[in-house]
Amino acid sequence: ALLGARETHGFDLDPASKPTADLLASDNGVADRCTFREGDFRRLEELDGTFDVVCANIYADVLMTHAHDLAERLSPDGWFCFSGCRFDHVDATRRAIEEAGLEVEERWDPEPGDAKPGDAFRRTVTITAGDVPGMLLPGLPGCSSQFRSTRGFRW
Questions:
Q1: Is 109 helix (H, G, I), strand (E, B) or coil?
Q2: Cα(152)–Cα(126) distance, rounded to whole angstroms?
Q3: For the whole model, what pTM was predicted?
Q4: What ranges in the chain are assigned the alpha helix state H?
Q5: What's 30's DSSP letter?
Q6: What local confidence, expressed as pLDDT, does residue 32 receive?
Q7: d(CA 135, CA 147)
Q8: I need a labelling partner for 85 at 20 to 30 A (CA). Which of 55, 59, 118, 123 fits?
Q9: Residue 122 · residue 93 · CB < 8 Å
Q10: Could you tell me the mean pLDDT of each successive run of 10 residues in the chain, 155 residues long?
Q11: What is the C-alpha separation between 97 and 147, in angstroms, rounded?
């Protein structure tokens, strides 16, 4: 909402998350555009349409289970940002995302073979729906995994 969304919807399994989210939205002057609920992915069934942006602090197993749901609910020009995927789950998570009909592209900056001591790496994995044009969108501050596109993702 702070970035200009007309409306936002959030859900979490933790019962403490809703009152905390409500308070933060109020403190930031965006409570009128935010709705928070306690619950799991079934909360998406209560909402119509697609989403321009999806952000999640989510475990890889949950993302793998719901990759098709996310791909279907992400608008054609939307983007997805998530954190919570352990390195040892990357391959399985990638397979699940690809099986949801999305394509994955990976880039490193600098390339691992070109790195010097003290360099910071930037890894970008772009996941997009096949044959659908998209555009790269700027990342969110503090979001460790960022995605792009057309029912796609950049991490």
A1: strand
A2: 7
A3: 0.62
A4: 17-27, 60-73, 90-99
A5: -
A6: 96
A7: 11
A8: 118
A9: no
A10: 86 91 93 92 84 82 87 77 77 86 71 81 63 38 39 38
A11: 12
Instruction: Determine the longest span between alpha carbons in the chain, in angstroms.
Output: 50
Q: Are 103 and 134 spatial neighbours (Cβ–Cβ below 8 Å)?
A: no
Q: Identify the CA nearest to 16 among candidates 26, 8, 24, 7.
A: 24
The Cα–Cα gap between 117 and 125 comes to: 23
User: How many residues appear in the chain?
Assistant: 155
Do 121 and 91 meet the contact criterion of CB atoms below 8 Å apart? no
Output the pLDDT for position 5.
Answer: 85
Instruction: In whole angstroms, give the CA distance from residue 56 to residue 114.
Output: 32
Half-sphere exposure of 143 (CA within 13 A, CB side): 19
127 phi, psi to nearest 5 deg: -125, 120
Q: Which pLDDT score is estimated for 110?
A: 79
Say what the pLDDT of residue 103 is: 64
CA–CA separation, 94 and 71 (whole Å)? 13
> Do 104 and 129 form a contact (C-beta atoms < 8 A)?
no
d(CA 146, CA 107): 13
The angle formed by the CA atoms of residues 61, 89 and 139, to the nearest 5 degrees, is 85
Q: Residue 55: count other Cβ atoms within 10 Å of its Cβ.
A: 18
